[in-house]
Amino acid sequence: MKKYIFITPEGNTTAPNGDEVKNMQVIGIVEEVANENEALKKLLLENEWIFDTEFNIAEFICHEII
């Protein structure tokens, strides 16, 4: 079984000095799946907040963690 990390270029974060910074954000890590498609399905099933916060799933970048 494999492990994947999902990141997105959407959104911002606040730096310690209060400035807003555009960066990549980790959406989640999924373990014990066979492939990327299965990982995305599991990510979305286990994290309903992704829909609630209106992230664009098409923007997600998926990498296998070895």
The largest beta-sheet arranges its strands as 4-1-5
Distance between the termini: 11 Å
Order of helices and strands: EEEEHHE
Going by helix content, strand content and strand pairing, the class is: alpha+beta
- Count of DSSP-assigned helices: 2
Largest sheet, described in full?
A: 3 strands, antiparallel
Q: What share of the residues does DSSP label as strand, in percent?
A: 35-45%
Our Rg estimate from Cα atoms comes to 13 Å
How many β-strand runs? 5
Overall shape: it is elongated
Helical proportion, percent range: 10-25%
Average pLDDT, rounded to a whole number, is 96
Unreliably modeled segments: none
Task: Put the structure in a nutshell.
Helices cover 23% and strands 41% of the residues. It is an alpha+beta fold. It has a three-stranded antiparallel beta sheet with strand order 4-1-5, with helices on one face. Strands 2-3 form a two-stranded antiparallel sheet.
Give a verbal description of the structure.
It is a single chain. The chain has 66 residues and is α+β, with helices and mostly antiparallel strands. The protein has helices spanning 36-46, 49-52; strands at 2-8, 12-14, 20-22, 25-33, 61-65. The strands form 2 sheets. The protein has a 3-stranded antiparallel beta sheet with strand order 4-1-5, with helices on one face. A two-stranded antiparallel sheet has the order 2-3. A hairpin with a 5-residue loop joins strand 2 and strand 3. The chain is elongated. It starts with a strand and ends with a strand.
